[in-house]
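pipeline/complex-builder :: batch 7 item 3
reading input block
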Amino acid sequence: MDVHLHELTPVLSEADAQAAQQQLQQRQQRQLAMSDTRRALVLDAARSVFAEKGVGGASIREIARRASYTPGAIYSYFDSKEAIYAALLAESLERLNQEVAAARPPKVQPHLTLSAKAQAWFGFYARNPRDLDLGFYLVQGLAPRGLTSELNQPLNARLHDALRPCEQAMQAMGLSPEAALRENTALFAHGVGLLLLQHTGRIRMFGQSAELLFQAYVDQLVDRLSPGERAPVPAPDQPDLFGR
Amino acid sequence: MDVHLHELTPVLSEADAQAAQQQLQQRQQRQLAMSDTRRALVLDAARSVFAEKGVGGASIREIARRASYTPGAIYSYFDSKEAIYAALLAESLERLNQEVAAARPPKVQPHLTLSAKAQAWFGFYARNPRDLDLGFYLVQGLAPRGLTSELNQPLNARLHDALRPCEQAMQAMGLSPEAALRENTALFAHGVGLLLLQHTGRIRMFGQSAELLFQAYVDQLVDRLSPGERAPVPAPDQPDLFGR
Amino acid sequence: MDVHLHELTPVLSEADAQAAQQQLQQRQQRQLAMSDTRRALVLDAARSVFAEKGVGGASIREIARRASYTPGAIYSYFDSKEAIYAALLAESLERLNQEVAAARPPKVQPHLTLSAKAQAWFGFYARNPRDLDLGFYLVQGLAPRGLTSELNQPLNARLHDALRPCEQAMQAMGLSPEAALRENTALFAHGVGLLLLQHTGRIRMFGQSAELLFQAYVDQLVDRLSPGERAPVPAPDQPDLFGR
Amino acid sequence: MDVHLHELTPVLSEADAQAAQQQLQQRQQRQLAMSDTRRALVLDAARSVFAEKGVGGASIREIARRASYTPGAIYSYFDSKEAIYAALLAESLERLNQEVAAARPPKVQPHLTLSAKAQAWFGFYARNPRDLDLGFYLVQGLAPRGLTSELNQPLNARLHDALRPCEQAMQAMGLSPEAALRENTALFAHGVGLLLLQHTGRIRMFGQSAELLFQAYVDQLVDRLSPGERAPVPAPDQPDLFGR
DNA sequence: TATGAATGAGAGTTCATTCAT
DNA sequence: CATGAATGAACTCTCATTCAT
């Protein structure tokens, strides 16, 4: 961009011009690198704040403090708080993709690949829960870790009450209490996951319907627990949901 | 108001005392009832605010405004904002339980019960997403719907990238592209649901491990897609995961 | 508004109720008065800040400081900075109206009234220039009093250059240098005043056109300086501009 | 770049010295010209910002952005924001002078010249209101166009109230309602213009007194509306105000 | 000359909470 | 029980200006 300016000073010889341009490029590269470094520094600070205080507790001030900057200086690197968030999320997704790409099954067989890849993304988020926060804008709004456990316990119990009928039904279908508990937990997780996807608009990215998928999960669960019990006629609008 | 009580103290017959106590009890009951009524009024206001503006957008001021109270008055009924949140959640769970209790299958058969009850709690949260917010402290922190879609789109794409290998593996196992997409969505939802349960401490309420449950889901998925492929030897630490 | 609450406690006798209501009213009145007092206090602080630092230099923080308040407390009395400004302006206009109303000519003759009333509003703004600031949102943007006089002087001279031709023309029409200067000053003021009215939208409040009014002023000026010179045919779209 | 100079210092013939000096001068001139060009570039940017966002909305950052400079670079050409403002104003005044100089009456008669020149400067500011802003430091402080019209309307009405007595007096002197309105608008504009001149120190440039000039305007107005009514004895300290 | 980084002050506004009355 | 007032800390973001390079 600055080349034009140099062209205006015709005193410089060809060689001089080349040298100057080279020098300029070097300097620019150096500065670019430094800029990136400092941007990364801010991003690191941001990540540490997000990690400690969650998405909701992260403030520009705090991020600046950790990066040894004044709040205003942050805006040299990011246009807004949201931009920081986006950069953090982008970088999180890169790490996720790296881990998934690195996961390779012992033998190249589809079912082993499926298992390995699934474990990869799941493991990533299991080990780095804040990245899940980032991905779903999960803000621990009120108490540092949800509610005070004093308040939390009876509420948890009441939630369990709502889910118990399913568990009992599964026991009635022949599952052991332990197995029923596990299946019920899985069932709840499945539903909640679908709801979260729907709620955050992520489900649109799959073009799917949470309701239909849940129905399918339940049908398949019933089928698995007591084969032959399920109505043999599949719903007409989802004929091949698990077909091949 | 207390004047009467003071006048009663000096001379006090047995009958008077009884009458007074009765009167006092009545008044206390009345006041208690009124207190409850007004508490409910505040709670109603809070619910409407939460419903409109979400967990993040709800402020004591706004709640007070809708309840025709001053902010300070709220603290007569609730110790803190968190307490309101807890009360709201409690009440949300009651409604959830009511709906689940009301759900009855056409015939009393375990698998129909399971289906009906599962659909009940799922439907409740699907219809009332704010109650899910309450249950999991889900706050849309930054932009009204996550990030600006401008920023959001490439990030969404990148997330999809991380999940695609599973989808491709499922196609390699013989699934149609549509079926693979659906199964992949379900797989992602399942994992995310487990992670959310773990992340918010809800999984402890089931005494389960997210990792093991996810492993089980994947194993079962593989089994369903290509029977016979799975190693016949179950992991020793979860021998009866789906046993009866 | 709280009356309903009292109606719910039927223990109170008629007399008690009256007394209580009276007491309540008194308290409310007292509080209202105090509230007004404090609001006035804030307004006083605001006025003093505006007076010292101008419209542009007034900040909520500074106003709060002078009123011995925290910045947040200001918002108990005013919704925004703009609201303070509006209140200040409203009050300024009241004072203006008072002064105009109080101005009475020695004898009740229309031309004396005109003179007295005009002098009244003019004098008000001449004595209280900040009220003019308020009325026209005049902000001293850069330096405390316009530009540094070092910079200002040559600029002033150059402005004068632009106006000198008029002055010379008036001298050519027979005015003494002093008279020409005065008339030129008046001419400039008239034009600037019209422009300011137009610029700030105040002219719409009169439903007038700045251009036409300026033209009329110039015509009348020419007529006054050299009677008979002006074209005898008035513009058809403003036939009675100075007619009676 | 300075290398050549160092090499020149040891041995230096007369001719060499002359050539070098000439070369130096040329380079300096060239640089000076370039400097001026770039200064003008910055000024252009500043003008466009001022034109779009007004005096209040112009920031060094924005000016630099439009000039494709960094904010710091601006300080190579101007010492401060105020200096930019001054340069802009200077240039504005040049344009004003050009327009006034270019304005020529059809025939060279003093009263036509007066009219043409007056229309010239008035027209310039009417067409370029931002130049008026520059000239009088007019900043729209709070809302983009003064106050929210919701707040503005009653305030406008109240201002009108203060001016109405004059209007009524003029009607009492025989003016039609329309004529009275126009005269009143002109009267208000005249006063406001004088006040603005006084307020911004511009009146000193004329060595005039706003009060006296206003008095004179009112007197002349009265005289025009009802000849003979005015006291025949002119104030002794302004004997020849309108004399020839 | 020009950059890029950074400062430090400050802007208006919101918040949960406290407390005397 | 409820009010109205007030606190104090926090919020994101903008600004003119400086300075080493």
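note: Residues 59-61, 71-72, 75, 80-81 of chain D lie near DNA strand F (CB under 10 Å from a C1').
queue -> next item
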